[in-house]
């Protein structure tokens, strides 16, 4: 349509050449100035063209208004720019009728009621339209998203429903007859709306046009896309052997993320993580054992998936602890059995057996979680009549800050025998790095300025 209008503008310009020439010849002020031998001042000329499109009962909000305004501006600038304002005023009537005539021919689906030209340094062209004939009543939208598993696509149902609403706003109410030319403006707009709703995808639109418009939108991923997913599986409630047995199944489910555009993963990581959690619980069979998956996704071409797999009923661990250093405590075997109280609380029984002289200590306690990164444990040793507070705060995917201290001044007043017994331990601060589901290494320092390396094996 713009090419047709540009050609018409050139033809119209030739048609009105005669009128412009007449305008030059009848410019009375300039003629009188020439007879008097005076130099006439340069008359004002049209420097820009503004356009305005009005409709009797409004225009659809898709590209029709912008399309018509663009075409009207092309015609106006071709005919009016650099012309004298007085000449445009003189030829105003013929110009308005000529513009109305051509737009009546090319704007199928609309009746051009009036065209009004207001000359000036910025000339204003106003066109009044009235939609004609039947209108678009309904839009049926089919969206095909390549490279996205149906379960993950279901996580984007809200976004796809919003896309349907936006497309309806673009199309519903437009004259059916106008679709003959407006569809060429509509398709890029729908593609733009779809690409904005689902970033990282390139949209292609095909459709059937009528009172009921049927649009098929195919979304193809653009680079960068997820090529590989690294899985970090953790559990604070299960033994390492159990966690390790589930690793292959979890990695298989995580491959659902491969092929997804990284920008989409960045915007909708929570939606996709929730869908993946549900899918893992169903496919890996962990849901029926009272286990819950908590997924965090780090978007990148080589994405990282952090999965915390924990029981909703109990917490069990068995650790072999080896301390390495000149002043390191004795090695020990530590067991923990806890029962969930609500969503965040836990009551537990713990045992520490110091292996050098087979000294066993028992503690009872309670724990509380502050999702997603912090846990607080308060334990009590009935035999030693001592209490201890431990705080664990996750710093990263594998790193954890560990603080442990006695309460009421007892921590530094116990039997400082260096064995690592409940009574003999002072305040300790450590940074733990988890190597895999079986082993963690922790650098520890205490309030006596002693430092050692603690290696923990999760049995």
Description of the molecule:
It is a single chain. The protein is α+β, with helices and mostly antiparallel strands. It folds into four domains: 2-131, no CATH class; 138-221, Ubiquitin-like (UB roll), CATH 3.10.20; 228-311, no CATH class; 315-458, Calycin beta-barrel core domain (Lipocalin, Beta Barrel). It is built from twelve helices and 19 strands. The strands form four sheets. The protein has a ten-stranded antiparallel barrel. A three-stranded mixed β-sheet has the order 1-3-2, with helices on one face. Strands 4-6-5 form a three-stranded mixed β-sheet, covered by helices on one side. A hairpin with a 4-residue loop joins β18 and β19. It is elongated, with a radius of gyration of 38 Å. Residues 15-34 and 409-416 have low confidence and may be disordered.
Summary, kept brief:
This protein has 459 residues and is α+β, with helices and mostly antiparallel strands. The chain is built from twelve helices and 19 strands.
Short descriptors:
single chain; 459 residues; alpha+beta; Ubiquitin-like (UB roll); 4 domains; 3-stranded mixed beta sheet; 19 strands; elongated
Distance between the termini: 74 Å
Structural class designation: alpha+beta
CATH topology of the largest domain: Lipocalin
By CATH, the superfamily of the largest domain comes out as Calycin beta-barrel core domain
Summarize the main sheet.
10 strands, antiparallel, barrel
């Amino acid at each position: 349509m713009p090419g047709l209008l540009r050609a018409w503008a050139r033809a119209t310009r030739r048609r009105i050449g005669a009128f412009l020439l007449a305008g030059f010849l009848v410019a009375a002020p300039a003629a009188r100035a020439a007879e008097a031998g005076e130099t006439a001042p340069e008359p004002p000329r049209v420097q820009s063209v503004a356009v305005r499109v009005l409709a009797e009962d409004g225009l659809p909000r898709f590209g029709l208004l912008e399309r018509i305004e663009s075409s009207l501006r092309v015609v106006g600038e071709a005919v009016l720019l650099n012309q004298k304002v007085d000449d445009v005023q003189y030829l105003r009537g013929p110009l308005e009728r000529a513009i109305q005539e051509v737009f009546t021919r090319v704007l199928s689906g609309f009746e051009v009621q009036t065209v009004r030209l207001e000359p000036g340094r910025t000339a204003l062209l106003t066109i009044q339209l009235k939609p004609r004939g039947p209108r678009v009543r309904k839009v049926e939208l089919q969206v095909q998203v390549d490279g996205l598993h149906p379960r993950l696509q279901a996580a984007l149902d809200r976004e796809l429903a919003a896309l349907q609403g936006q497309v309806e706003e673009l199309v519903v109410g437009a004259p059916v007859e106008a679709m003959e030319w407006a569809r060429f403006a509509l398709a890029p707009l729908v593609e733009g709306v779809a690409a904005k709703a689902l970033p990282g995808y390139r949209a292609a639109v095909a459709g059937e046009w009528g009172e009921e418009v049927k649009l098929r939108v195919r979304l193809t991923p653009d680079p960068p896309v997820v090529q590989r997913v690294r899985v970090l599986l953790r559990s604070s409630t299960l033994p390492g052997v159990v966690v390790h047995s589930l690793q292959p199944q979890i990695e298989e489910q995580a491959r659902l993320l491969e092929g997804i555009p990284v920008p989409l993963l960045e915007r909708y990581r929570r939606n996709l993580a929730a869908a993946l959690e549900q899918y893992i619980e169903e496919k890996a069979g962990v849901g029926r054992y009272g286990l819950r998956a908590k997924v965090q996704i780090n978007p990148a071409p080589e994405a990282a998936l952090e999965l915390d797999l924990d029981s909703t009923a109990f917490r069990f661990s068995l650790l072999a602890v080896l301390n390495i250093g000149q002043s390191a405590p004795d090695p020990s075997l530590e067991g923990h059995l806890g029962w969930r109280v609500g969503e965040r609380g836990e009551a537990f029984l713990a045992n520490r057996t110091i292996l050098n002289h087979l000294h066993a200590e028992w503690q009872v306690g309670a724990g509380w979680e502050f999702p997603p990164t912090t846990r607080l444990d308060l334990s009590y040793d009935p035999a030693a009549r001592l209490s201890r507070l431990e705080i664990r705060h996750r710093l990263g995917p594998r790193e954890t800050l560990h603080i442990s201290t006695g309460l009421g001044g007892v921590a530094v007043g116990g039997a400082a025998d260096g064995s690592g017994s409940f009574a003999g331990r002072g305040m300790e601060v450590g940074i733990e790095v988890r190597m895999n589901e079986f082993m963690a290494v922790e650098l520890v320092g205490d309030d006596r300025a002693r430092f050692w390396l603690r290696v923990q094996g999760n049995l």
